Amino acid sequence: MSLRNPYGDFEITDPQAMRALAHPVRLAALSYLQKNGPATATQLSEHVGASPSVTSWHLRHLAGFGLVVDGPPPSGSDRRQRWWNAVAHGFRYQIPDTPEGLEAGRLLRTEMMNQGLEMAQHWLAETEPGLDPEWSRVAGSSNTLLVLTPAEAEALESAIEQVMAPYVQRRDAGESPDDAHPIRFLRLSLPEATDPQ
Description:
By secondary structure, this protein is mainly α. The chain has helices spanning 15-21, 24-36, 41-48, 52-64, 99-127, 133-138, 150-172, and strands at 10-12, 39-40, 68-71, 83-86, 91-93.
């Protein structure tokens, strides 16, 4: 794995792909496939808030950018159905310097943050109350102000990814310990305005 992409994430560089993924149904469908593995449009429709035919259309759109593929069904599944799978367990992008790229990157960032906030609210209301106390204690949140240069911010992000990479890679290889539990890390890095006004 590269130092800039230690998880083997799908790298999005095309502003049109960023804009396509910024759609709530598409991002939700891709997120579901990344987390749960292959699914049909009908199965996904229950989780993304769209009909099976609309979900299928969005999946074909994602496939056009290489983010998902249709492939063989899981063993024991109906071979007549069309099964979709994410091409990687995650994706990453860097906002391009062009006006089109800047707008597309901002749209994608906005939708990712919206869905991340919804995920956190759902966790607080539905998941956390039923966790064993041990797992509830290790759930973390923090709000820390750092003063960094752009190069330091990139180095910090890279260091965080390097620390997390072995856990992502072990999960992919099916090598998690028996007492391991899925944990979702949501990271927001929000540079603040330099003008206090």
